[in-house]
């Protein structure tokens, strides 16, 4: 028997409240990004190879870069779902659920998710824009120390960032 509108609405609201559901969707989208990205990269590299030999034509250029819009859209959707999962993990109130279901990826969403956009300069210590939904109360961030990457864990209630702690302990 098909579900009633009320049952579908309740199931949707339950899924919206579950950070792991957002993470699952982000992961599925990331898998699609990988598939489309691999094909996009192969087609673009083939066109570049042919262009270097001066065997290219206008149609080859159109085919080589035709997957770029779909690739970028999937990347955006994956990031948006991950950000929404981080937001819901921190605050699962009805107001927050309404906000995540009516907004799309922008700088405000990333800020609300606690994601810090950084300059990826190899000479600076910065937290990357990736966090994982780990054990309750724990999050992982990748720090970019001079000369390489390290991963640090930190308590969600701690005042110090993982990069600040790494800087302090590596001096």
What does this structure look like?
There is one protein chain. This protein has 171 residues and is mainly alpha-helical. The chain has 2 domains: 1-114; 116-171, no CATH class. It is built from 7 helices and 3 strands; from the N terminus they run ααααααβββα. It has helices spanning 5-16, 19-52, 58-64, 68-90, 94-102, 107-113, 162-170, and strands at residues 127-133, 138-143, 150-155. A 3-stranded antiparallel beta sheet has the order 1-2-3. The protein is elongated and about 60 Å long. The N and C termini lie far apart (65 Å).
Note the main attributes of this structure.
171 residues, mainly alpha, 2 domains, three-stranded antiparallel beta sheet, 3 strands
How would you concisely characterize the structure shown here?
The protein has helices spanning 5-16, 19-52, 58-64, 68-90, 94-102, 107-113, 162-170, and strands at residues 127-133, 138-143, 150-155.
The class by helix and strand makeup works out as: mainly alpha
Which percent range fits the helix content? Answer: 55-70%
The biggest beta sheet reads: 3 strands, antiparallel
Average pLDDT reading:
74
What strand order characterises the main sheet?
A: 1-2-3
The rounded distance between the terminal residues' Cα atoms is 65 Å
Q: How many H/I helical runs?
A: 7
How many individual domains? 2
The count of strands amounts to: 3
The residue ranges in which pLDDT falls below 50 over 5 or more consecutive positions are: 124-171
User: Proportion of β residues?
Assistant: 5-15%
Inertia-based shape: elongated
- Indicate the radius of gyration in whole angstroms: 21 Å
H-E order: HHHHHHEEEH
